[in-house]
């Protein structure tokens, strides 16, 4: 399936559903046809059962598109993933800043176990620092809302989309159309974005956030230049929240928590992939994230495929789920990793 990934919206659901979720490098896949949310971060994502399938889809989708000026100019050559047997030449980075507040002990243990898996196989595993990561979620929300406000301005009830029946005046029709067509979350983002873009606030918020974004991207550049090939991080803070817990928080709080470990890759335009790793104590899927260098999808997917083979995550059978088999997760636990 296809997703869209602005701050983690392909990798987060992939982690919660036990499937592979790939966010390619920004500009590798055309955004033509994707409803723009945050133009500078939006990337079409790929959801598959296994890493090999993600590589196949990427080969079909990637490359230059004359209808999207942000896509790469060079032709993209599809590739077949090799079976990696020797990881001794790999350097895996463990960013200490991803040990974020709210990270469950279960995810932390899996993250540590995955690092040990690489280390025991001969790979070099090193702790690295991305010092500006702690500012990234705030920076992301400033830039996100600013671009949302700009992009949503097109939905005015005249050109296309919903139009209100209000006919008192053009202004009242505009207002009613946008009140009816946008929910509270979108309206909140538009209001925040327009506030950050006000003349008196532009330098203080928007410009400063752009500068912080550059520092975040430079952190990744420095780490990769130091010899690290791939970064290994959690994808989510915990497994999926039960509905009774989910409704205790508003959407804004929930989305801020969900994106905290994923949105930095979007800010830097880097490729990242969620690989399903194990089942939690509640029997729910948990994934880990790999982040690679720009346009080095082949290396990223090759490492992800090796990891996938090691953990032997139990493939969720949709037929069993459809039969409402409550034991579908419990009786298929991965003996090798969870």
**What is the number of strand segments?**
8
Q: Low-confidence stretches at least 5 residues in length (pLDDT < 50)?
A: 328-335
What is the radius of gyration computed over CA atoms, rounded to a whole number of angstroms?
21 Å
- Termini gap: 27 Å
Helix content: 40-55%
User: Which CATH class is shown?
Assistant: Alpha Beta
Q: What would the average pLDDT be, to the nearest integer?
A: 90
How is the largest sheet built, in terms of strand order? 1-3-2-7-8-6-4-5
| Corresponding CATH superfamily | Amidase signature (AS) domain
How many domains? The number is: 1
Number of helices, where a helix is a run of at least 4 consecutive DSSP H or I residues: 12
SSE order, as H and E? EHEEHEHEHHHHEHHHEEHH
Largest sheet: 8 strands, mixed
**Strand fraction:** 5-15%
Q: How does the overall form come out from the CA principal axes?
A: globular
What is the secondary structure topology, with strand pairs?
Elements (H helix, E strand, L loop, with lengths): L1 E4 L5 H7 L2 E4 L19 E6 L2 H11 L29 E5 L9 H16 L3 E5 L7 H17 L17 H12 L2 H14 L4 H24 L4 E5 L8 H4 L4 H8 L4 H6 L3 E8 L5 E7 L5 H15 L6 H5 L16
Parallel strand pairs: 4-5, 4-6
Antiparallel strand pairs: 1-3, 2-3, 2-7, 6-8, 7-8
Helix pairs in contact: 2-11, 4-6, 4-7
